[in-house]
Amino acid sequence: MFQELPHMYVPPHELKQAIEKGDHRKLIGTVIRREDYLVPKAGGKFDAEEYDAHPEKYRSTFAEKIAPYMSVMVNGVYWQPGFPRLLTNEDIQQLTKQKAAHSVSDGCPPLPHRFLAVCDISADINGSLEFMTECTTIEYPFELFDPQKSKSEIG
């Protein structure tokens, strides 16, 4: 569906600029890899071998660098306990706080925040997306989550 609509892809480090200054008549997509959002706590560059062996030495910058510029996220990240989360409960509360509503272009309704939806195909309950508390199914494909109340329901 995405590729059938007017769109463009940008590297993750250009996402902020594309959202702020790009053509709002096009969808903007990016593909994020581990090295785009994981950084060593002690400083330096991402090292895949070190990360796989010692994930506790890394932290996620996803909530600061990438998530503020997303409207929709499709998550398929491999995650297990002990690894940094993409988004914590605290992160999602900050990302979805009510802000001054504004429209980016004529004809668009004003929205209180940019982040609107997540498609989580990873199915990790309380995993890389800590706020995902249920696994969706074909019969119930959506989890509706209210980050301000920390409450969800399957729909």
UniProtKB/TrEMBL annotation:
<dbReference type="GO" id="GO:0004753">
    <property type="term" value="F:saccharopine dehydrogenase activity"/>
</dbReference>
<dbReference type="GO" id="GO:0019878">
    <property type="term" value="P:lysine biosynthetic process via aminoadipic acid"/>
</dbReference>
<protein>
    <submittedName>
        <fullName>Alpha-aminoadipic semialdehyde synthase, mitochondrial</fullName>
    </submittedName>
</protein>
<dbReference type="GO" id="GO:0005737">
    <property type="term" value="C:cytoplasm"/>
</dbReference>
<dbReference type="InterPro" id="IPR051168">
    <property type="entry name" value="AASS"/>
</dbReference>
<keyword id="KW-0560">Oxidoreductase</keyword>
